[in-house]
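Page 42, continued from yesterday. The earlier attempt failed because a stray header line got pasted into the input along with the sequence. Redoing it now with the clean sequence only.
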Amino acid sequence: MNRIEGRVKVTGLATYAAEYPVEGVTYACPVQSRIAKGRIKRIDGRDALAMPGVLAVLSSEDPPRLAREAAGELALFQSRDVAYRGQFVAAAVADTYENARAAADAIVVEYEQDLHDVTLRADHPNLYQPETVNPGFPCDTVKGDVESGLDAAETSIDVIYTTPVLHNNPMEPHAALAVWDAEGRLLVYDTAQGTSSSRDLIAKTLGLPREQVRVVSRHVGGGFGSKGTTRPQAVLAALAARDVGRPVKIVLTRQQMYDVTGYRTPTIQRLRLGADAQGRLTAVEHVAYEQSSTLVEFAEQTATPARVMYATPALRTAHRLVRLDVATPSWMRAPGECPGMYALESAMDELAYAAGLDPIELRVINEPETEPDSGLPFSSRSLVACLREGARRFGWDRRDPGPALRRDGEWMIGTGVASSTYPALRQPSRARVTMREGDFLVQLAAADIGTGARTALTGIAAEALGVAPERVHVELGDSDLPDAPLAGGSMGTASWGTAIVRACEALKVNGTEGRADTTEEIKRDAELARHAFGAQFAEVRVNSVTGEVRLSRLLGVFAAGHIVNPKLARSQFIGGMTMGMGMALMEETFTDEEFGGFLRRDLAQYHVPACADVPDIEAVWLDEQDAGLNPMGSKGIGEIGIVGTAAAIGNAVYHATGHRVRDLPITPAKVLNLMF
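This time it went through. Structure tokens are written below.
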């Protein structure tokens, strides 16, 4: 199936959060803190209020009413404390965007500035062990004796990898349009990856019953996790609209998005691996150091992939967190698995060279029978098949046996491989299916964030009902519809699709309407280890004079259950691999150590891949049958494409040059520094 919403998108008819036609709309523009830590002494909005068209100034001088439960960056203007540079400290509301922006510039804010700390280090004195890591995994795990396993190893490595701050950068900026009706019910058009969860959090923040809040998000121009939780612009729009008695719209600039919409935490990761003479792992230790803000604890699950990947008698994973004077990190495509697998798969490559083994064979030798950490049986696991198929397609048998052996003039050529994994999750969902004049209306509060969810769910419903897809109409993106989990964690299709299939089954019994709630059904998911797997292959050309890295070929082979829609799946896999390419070679947000905040704050400086950055990129998949997953037999695919890609590219750079870059991104300066 082609995308159902394709025509309205390319003709401009698809309505995004900032585009809904509302009469009497006004505009809000935030004022951001210019210090990283301290207190607000005074805010003077008199000059702003005297300007043309200005309706209100919101600030901590007269804090707007919020619930006691309001927390973190959503507790707008409730405190004079400043937690990070770029924090919203005030806002102007006016009849036009231009007037609101001018008024915001006229608001005077005076501070009492304190010394700030914005730098993550592995020896930071305030590092601590959080209770859990996202989304509720144990922080640390230990199996066997790692030290004894390393002592007994024939070959061992002890290496440190780092990844920088990364930003999500969806095409559609974060925006909100808030409207209060005469009965006091709030409608928020929001850029939300989940309308049900966004409604609940907005209601909690404002101290309203959830029935009194409605969130609509029918089209979302990308999110990658940054729109997975409610962001300050949604609460600000609601507060401003309540204050002025008119609808209020706010659209964040690209620069503002860098400050208040989350980012991937930087990481420092230490890996210690040991193997016997045959290449079997004797010990794996993976320790990750990360940061969060002083407002909210967010601990990314960076080391958890090591609990899934390879058989070893001794395994230790750990996370250490430090709260700094920075904005709060959050979800970015494959949080945890993405940076964690970069380090683990780079370390596996280093171990393979140290042991004199082919990198693929090292992974095959250490294939586990059950999930290494939990001991649970896998619902299905086709990693070895992905590695073998990828090797065949990529021509791995023609690979040079060692590094720095192949040249084309001043270009050094190398290839690399890395494994990928991501959990196959579900969350409870509801759905309603109704027969209307011979057609079928499917309703649930799911979100289409550009993945083609409408199309995939239409196909699922049509197959469950045994009718042509043209007879199925899917309505989503509205919190007034049956509750559904957000689009994130690669769990959307599995969660929503299960509910739709069960509702369709109920309709067949009822005849006119079917409803479903999958809460009880998915409790059985804990009985199996459910993961998708894949293998990434990369070929690079590294210039021996300039240090420039060019990616020639990129191949991903995946095993993700039944592929619901091949067209959409290929798009998602390649999209993830493209982001992995950016992570490997160019993406990086610098932290301003002197003043706080971030230095790279737009797409002129924060580079993302373009089509010309890789001539040949391809994604394929195996036909994996897994009836124990869900009615569709599917696994999530939105995130596994990014997992392992950066490691495959980094491993290829080593194979080309004989030098290992362990700090992403792999820039020409870093390559030249190692070579000369």
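Notes: Residues 63 and 78 are 6 Å apart (CA to CA).
Reminder to self: strip header lines before submitting.
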